[in-house]
Specification:
homodimer; mainly alpha; Arc Repressor Mutant, subunit A; Tetracycline Repressor, domain 2; 12 helices; globular; HTH_TetR (chains A, B); HTH-type_TetR-like_transc_reg (chains A, B); DNA-binding (chains A, B); TetR_C_16 (chains A, B)
């Protein structure tokens, strides 16, 4: 995100000397993911390029490909990872609605509404086929995790409804940016979402 | 919608002889609204023109302007009218969730997902300023009506959440078209939505 980093064009095999020690593989991966989040959020899925992500992260195009394989996979890595999502979902089902509400609000707040999730909603609504497939993959992944935590025969439907509700909240608050949902503070939003998510998830 | 009607270019003051008797002002207005629904749904808000709506309705551009004034007003008339919405909302608040669920599903089913509401969601997501203003006007209008029926200090927030939920359901079922919400039959969707709408509206 910093200008100096964004301008860096050091080859991966000949890293910028000043960064050699701090740029271990894990840190590099994190920098690429961070750059991808910003790029997808600003430019949308279709317009964003791996080259631009690499430029912002100060790494080569080849390194991004080696880590992530494709733009689709890079995108999936830039939205809340399965790892993070599992950490939210795992645990006592009774407190799940609170955790989902807090996690959603924290994440959107941290990105100031410039979240890849917003970019993806826009991309799907614009009829981008690749975005639609990505969205479906994300849904399926999160569904898998919910299934491990909450029992019930209609869990698929309930998780789909939670997803729909959060899509609509995101649309109102971060795309349309008008109405009560856009005016609430983060804390108010958590308090508002929690009982509604509970009603949908744990009827 | 019929080809013969769509091709008609009769001037309003010299109506097509065959249609003279059936085209009273009320029927003409209904034909314009019907043509507008189809046009906005197919072409989206930005691309749709009053000229195209007039062509489909078999009336002149001037007549559409005289009835509706502008494309914005025509659009608002083509989504469920305030009159219809009030008919749904008025009545016993306890059965309101059922009525909202049925009304939503019936409307989307009738249009086969080609509803101006879908076009509007797409337009807002694409960043069309006019669409955003229209959406805000629609939200404010429906809010006014809910306020007359349901009491409570946080009614604005609850109605905003119902709106968000239905936006998300529409997005999942008619834009993304994947996942459980897209797979449900109309009856299943009504049964699924009703308790969730009740939980949000009447906690």
């Amino acid at each position: 995100m910093e200008a100096s980093q964004a301008e860096a064009t050091a080859d991966e095999d000949v890293p910028h000397p000043a960064k050699k020690r701090t740029r271990d593989p894990e840190a590099r991966r994190a920098a690429i993911v961070e750059a991808a989040r910003a790029t997808f959020a600003e430019q949308g899925f279709a317009k964003a390029t791996i080259r631009e992500v690499a430029r912002r992260a100060g790494v080569t195009h080849g390194l991004v490909i080696r880590h992530f394989g494709s733009k689709e996979r890079l995108f999936l890595a830039s939205v809340p990872s399965s790892h993070n999502l599992m950490a939210e979902i795992a645990g006592d089902p009774r407190s799940l609605p609170t955790r989902v509400a807090r996690s959603y609000v924290r994440r959107m707040s941290r990105s100031g509404g410039c979240d890849p999730f917003v970019a993806l909603i826009r991309a799907v609504a614009s009829g981008e086929g690749a975005a639609e497939r990505l969205f479906a993959v994300m849904q399926e992944e999160s569904l898998e995790m919910y299934r491990q935590v909450i029992p019930g025969p209609d869990i698929d439907q309930r998780v789909a409804s939670v997803g729909a509700y959060l899509i609509g909240v995101t649309f109102s608050r971060y795309v349309l940016k008008s109405g009560s949902l856009a005016e609430m503070s983060d804390d108010e939003l958590v308090r508002h979402l929690t009982p509604n998510l509970r009603g949908i998830l744990l009827p």
